[in-house]
Amino acid sequence: MKSVSVELRYPGRRVEEVRAMLADPAFRDAVCAYQHVEDSSVSIEEYDDGSMTVDLDRTYGTALVPSFARKFVGATIDLVQREEWTSPTEASFDVSIPGKPGEMTGSAKLVQQGADAVETVTMDVRVAIPLIGGRLEDLVAGLLKDAFRAENKVGLKWLAGEWRV
């Protein structure tokens, strides 16, 4: 198992602004466009108590995946992500790769730190393949960090009203 933690900082923003952004399907689509996702779909359900469920399916190409891993993942990587926001500021994540021996689970927390809204995401990556599972976990952990950093880049521009596809 490989653990990943990443802090996404939104300077001068309130937690409520970031939460509203995360609940916007157009923002999720913008992140997918920025990451050059080959195909994606998003479904977001918000509830009266401030909780929400986000279902995000993405298909990535594997051109940047090392050759040792490509034979295990194939021509594309499908990720199925479910976020269960139990409150406006706390979520659990489950990410699966259908048909592949890997899974990612974790949590997110939004907090106000002075003038900044900060989202901290912590994930555990497990790949159950003998001998190379650890290398694949390292690879997936790096890809996860990159994906969350991309979300942060898009989010900064989105909140500033500067996002253009």
Give the rounded overall mean pLDDT.
90
User: Would you identify the CATH architecture?
Assistant: 2-Layer Sandwich
Strand order of the largest sheet: 1-7-6-5-4-3-2
Assign an overall shape: globular
What is the chains' assembly state?
single chain
Q: What structural class do the secondary elements suggest?
A: alpha+beta
Terminal residue distance: 36 Å
Estimate what percentage of residues fall within beta strands: 35-45%
CATH superfamily: START domain
Domains, number: 1
Give the helix proportion (percent range): 25-40%
List low-confidence stretches: none
Protein name: DUF2505 domain-containing protein
Pfam families: DUF2505 (PF10698)
Organism: Nocardioides islandensis
Summed up, what is this model?
This is DUF2505 domain-containing protein. The chain has 165 residues and is of the alpha+beta class.
Overview of the molecule:
The protein starts with a strand and ends in a 6-residue tail after the last helix. The chain is α+β, with helices and mostly antiparallel strands and 165 residues long. It has one domain (2-159): START domain (Alpha-D-Glucose-1,6-Bisphosphate, Chain A, domain 4, 2-Layer Sandwich). The model has no long low-confidence stretch (mean pLDDT 90). The relative contact order is 0.23. A seven-stranded antiparallel beta sheet has the order 1-7-6-5-4-3-2. Helix 2 (25-34) crosses helix 4 (133-159). It is 32% helix and 42% strand. InterPro entries: DUF2505. This is DUF2505 domain-containing protein. It comes from Nocardioides islandensis.
